[in-house]
């Protein structure tokens, strides 16, 4: 079984467009630093078993925060964050 958590935590990167996408999808108004901090918290809190690779992406599901992150497995670049069940996120 591949482990993705440590590699993603050490190599995660962001594009300029993804900050706006995350704010829009999660209905937030956070700064770039706040978004990076939130993503880091979600990644650290999520169990390794919730990191699932499908195709070129890794999907990280955190049910406690009702968020699913999508990360490109080749570049470790975050693509998007989605709400689960339409619930709001806890910062």
Note down, in words, how this protein is organized.
The protein is α+β, with helices and mostly antiparallel strands and 91 residues long. The chain has helices at 5-11, 16-26, 32-45; strands at residues 51-54, 57-62, 67-72, 78-83. Strands 1-2-3-4 form a four-stranded antiparallel sheet. Strand 1 and strand 2 form a beta hairpin. It is globular, with a radius of gyration of 12 Å. It starts with a helix and ends in an 8-residue tail after the last strand. The model has no long low-confidence stretch (mean pLDDT 93).
Give a summary of the structure in a few sentences.
The protein is an alpha+beta fold and 91 residues long.
Helix residue percentage: 25-40%
Distance between the first and last residues' Cα: 31 Å
Biggest sheet features: 4 strands, antiparallel
Poorly predicted runs are: none
β-sheet strand percentage:
15-25%
Which helices and strands appear, and what pairs or packs with what?
Layout (H helix, E strand, L loop, with lengths): L4 H7 L4 H11 L5 H14 L5 E4 L2 E6 L4 E6 L5 E6 L8
Antiparallel strand pairs: 1-2, 2-3, 3-4
